[in-house]
Design brief:
With about 120 residues, the protein is mostly helical. Helix content is about 50%, strand content about 10%. Strand 5, helix 4 and strand 6 form a beta-alpha-beta unit. The protein is elongated, with a radius of gyration of 18 Å. The protein starts with a strand and ends with a strand.
Length: about 120
């Protein structure tokens, strides 16, 4: 399946939310398999994102990134270029083979429209 990076991150969030719910055994098993595969992908995505932003981050006198409240401080003169690079990065398509979920399997749980939207690529009707 082809996913934009932003879709992978949204799907990962939705799957993690489902992973905290009490589900029937078969659905819980499928969610666990999807979650494990997504965690590997998200780790790679985060590593690549960090490499991408480092040239745009303010550094201290020891050349260490400056972080304020858990957020990297961006050099003001490079903010637009970084935004463009990140938009391109999050729009990049990657291929991931994931198990699918049957729509019927999800009928016993309550989901928000946002969760359904994130899950749509792996739902079969």
């Amino acid at each position: 399946m082809e996913f934009k990076i932003v879709e992978v991150l949204d799907l990962n969030k939705a799957i993690n939310e489902l992973a905290d719910m009490k589900l029937n055994t078969i659905l819980a098993y499928k969610i666990a398999r999807i979650r494990k595969k997504l965690q590997e992908e998200v780790t790679t995505i985060e590593e690549n994102r960090t490499q991408l932003i480092m040239p745009y981050i303010k550094k201290d006198e020891n050349n260490e990134p400056i972080i304020d409240n858990g957020i990297y401080e961006v050099m003001e003169e490079t903010r637009k270029e970084l935004t463009d690079k990140l938009n391109e990065f999050f729009g990049t398509e990657i291929k991931i083979e994931l198990p699918t979920l049957q729509l019927k399997e999800l009928e016993s749980i309550e989901l928000t429209p946002k969760q359904i939207e994130a899950l749509m690529k792996i739902i079969e009707e």
